[in-house]
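S.,

Sequence below, as promised.
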Amino acid sequence: MAETPNEKQIIDSQKHYSEEGLWDKMKSVFKKAGIKVIYLALVLYYTVSADSTPTSKKGIIYGALGYFILPIDLVPDAIPVVGFSDDLAALVACVAAVSMCITPAIKSQAETKLKDWFGEFDKKEIEELV
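The prediction came back faster than expected:
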């Protein structure tokens, strides 16, 4: 099993976040990373973009998205099957920390973008993530 990034590693990753970097990363790896990783990244992106999200929660989200963007992390993304497992762990931990900020509208925005990129998908794949 892949090592889970610790809170300090995630927070330190804030400096790597940029909106352009996030979109570039998602577009370049969305098939390889898989629907779960991309869904969580989208949910967090839309959550951090919401005016109602407190600044303290935005800092946590920027850290997790920065970790996702970072090309060098605990488990290199190039490793088949497990390459995005540490990214997934960081995103899941972040979603748990900011869950009270994630609205049905945010989930809907993320699902719409997933359909654009993946086509129709089984909602069961993502429903337990958020």
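The chain has one domain: 7-125.

Coffee later?
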